[in-house]
Design a protein that fits this description.
eight-stranded antiparallel beta sheet; mainly beta; nine-stranded antiparallel beta sheet; about 230 residues; Lipocalin; 2 domains
């Protein structure tokens, strides 16, 4: 489905919450509490999102966790005028029904959600089952902490560039399609940093060169190479 179909205001069946999606992020509103975050999608139907912050009057501090129905979502499909989120096993996690709401600000989400170029010859598409684990850049780093990313089987990830920690969610699909979101991070600088978290946030494809995991952007430009750590 066209990822731009996600942009709009949706009621989340059975929760009382409203999900407002624009090309740059989303707000999940429940009474006076608002959670906000980032999302990515692909024309193949892959979808991933997570909450990065929250505000509200009913809790101190407000709940900034990602609700289970959203955290588990790995794909999205249209059913009539509704959208249905499914987990990696194909089980539905939530149904979204469109509401009247403000028109999304101009800006084509295709810049972040369009069809990625295919993997270059010689790379084997990364299968989701092969991705969980801890990965470190193929290059040697002198950073204070080891740059790495830990891809969990539940679709979450944590990692570091050697100075700054980051976290988010990831999903993968056919032909090496790979999408990840990334939350806020500190902005410290140090010698030997390797931008592993940034590679994930920009990746659109993942492939294997032997046992080496290669992440590529939507134009099939190589972002970085990772090895099991």
């Amino acid at each position: 489905m066209d990822p731009s179909a996600l942009v709009g205001t949706w009621s989340v069946t059975g929760t009382g919450a409203v999900l407002a999606v624009d090309p740059h992020g989303f707000e999940l509103r429940d009474g006076t509490d608002v959670r906000f975050g980032s999302w990515r999608a692909d024309p193949s139907g892959l979808f991933v999102a997570h909450v990065t912050g929250a505000s509200g009057a009913t809790q101190a501090p407000p709940d900034a966790s990602t609700p289970p129905w959203l955290a588990a979502a790995a794909t999205v499909a249209a059913e009539g005028t509704d959208l249905v989120l499914h987990d990696a096993a194909g089980e539905p996690t939530a149904r979204l029904s469109r509401q009247a709401g403000p028109t999304a600000a101009p800006g084509a989400p295709e810049a972040r959600t369009g069809q990625a170029d295919p993997l270059p010859p010689g790379l084997e598409p990364a299968d989701r089952s092969r991705l969980p684990g801890r990965w470190a850049p193929a290059e040697t780093s002198t950073a204070p902490q080891p740059p790495h990313v830990e891809l969990a089987a539940d679709g979450s990830w944590t990692g570091s560039d050697g100075c700054n920690s980051a976290a988010g969610r990831w999903t993968a699909g056919p032909r090496g399609i790979f999408l990840a979101t990334s939350g806020p991070s500190t902005l410290m600088a140090c010698e030997g940093m390797v931008g592993v978290p940034g590679w994930l946030g920009a990746a659109a494809r993942a492939g294997f060169d032997g046992e080496t995991l290669v992440l590529l952007d939507a134009d099939a430009h190589e972002l970085g190479r990772l090895q099991r750590a």
